[in-house]
Amino acid sequence: RSAVTVPQLHARKQAGEKIVMVTAYDASFAAAVDAAGIDVVLVGDSLGMVIQGESSTLPVTLDHMVYHSAAVARGLHKALLIADLPFMSYATREQAYASAARLIGEGRAAMVKLEGAGWAADVIHALAERDIPVCAHLGLTPQSVHKLGGYRVQGRDEERAERLLDDARAVAAAGADLLVLECVPSALAQRITAEVAIPTIGIGAGPHCDGQVLVMYDLLGLTPGKRPRFSKNFLAGTDSVAGALHAYADAVRSGAFPASEHSY
Ligand code: KIV
Ligand code: NA
């Protein structure tokens, strides 16, 4: 198996082959993900919550992201590494250039991810012009939690669904290479996936996306409290982290996950 590349991800969409993605924050988990044949590893700013114990992703700094991205990179041989640009690290083009340069240069990421459209589409365009691969992120965008008023499904009414579809077109036109759709109704994610040429990666976005992503600790059943609807404990039914990661990858590739019970 050779290393996963950005053009290969585009080819997967054309071929109708699902893209499997999971978060990791350190070298040991990264190596396990890589060994399981998972395509893409995301160093998510979810680390603010699952690693640091914060109640949102907002306190995460660029230094934190660079540190964890570099650690994950040391564990990988094949999987493509994406790192999140944290809150307010890409508010202007110049800031986005400087922040992406650190995630790619020091953090060894192959792609950066950022949330939003509108002004963020301009930032995507600026990065894409410099040949920096970008993953867009729409729907429930956790860096906007204070404006959204909580973590809940987005794009439920027709007006908001149309706006999300326009945003998806805009980030694709701006040059994004991938699009994460978080907590949007299945039917809307299906429309967006059919509409845009770039692969869509769903989390709480139903079974019709071109790929799926989960937070590692959700997948391992470590999430305290009530399980989020969109996640599944893949450690149940196996006896190792490797087994859980293989089960997750198989379930995404076969279309068994997500099922309607994990969707909106
Ligand atoms: O930070 C993260 O883990 C993410 C995924 C949930 C897509 O952005
Ligand atoms: Na994130």
From TrEMBL:
Q: Does the UniProt entry include the keyword Nuclease?
A: no
What family name appears in the similarity comment?
Belongs to the PanB family.
Q: Which reaction does it catalyse?
A: (6R)-5,10-methylene-5,6,7,8-tetrahydrofolate + 3-methyl-2-oxobutanoate + H2O = 2-dehydropantoate + (6S)-5,6,7,8-tetrahydrofolate
How does this protein assemble?
Answer: Homodecamer; pentamer of dimers.
* Active site feature: 182 (proton acceptor)
Q: Lineage of the source organism?
A: Bacteria, Pseudomonadati, Pseudomonadota, Gammaproteobacteria, Lysobacterales
Cofactor(s) needed, names only, are: Mg(2+)
Establish whether keyword Hydrolase is in the entry: no
Q: What is this protein called?
A: 3-methyl-2-oxobutanoate hydroxymethyltransferase
The positions annotated for binding 3-methyl-2-oxobutanoate are 45-46, 84, 113
According to the record, how does the cofactor bind? Binds 1 Mg(2+) ion per subunit.
Annotated Gene Ontology MF terms? 3-methyl-2-oxobutanoate hydroxymethyltransferase activity
Q: In which pathway does it act?
A: Cofactor biosynthesis; (R)-pantothenate biosynthesis; (R)-pantoate from 3-methyl-2-oxobutanoate: step 1/2
Which locations, inside or outside the cell, does it occupy?
Answer: Cytoplasm
Enzyme Commission number, as recorded: 2.1.2.11
Q: Which domain of life is it from?
A: Bacteria
Q: What does this protein do?
A: Catalyzes the reversible reaction in which hydroxymethyl group from 5,10-methylenetetrahydrofolate is transferred onto alpha-ketoisovalerate to form ketopantoate.
Record's keyword terms, sorted: Cytoplasm, Magnesium, Metal-binding, Pantothenate biosynthesis, Transferase
In this chain, Mg(2+) is annotated as bound at 45, 84, 115
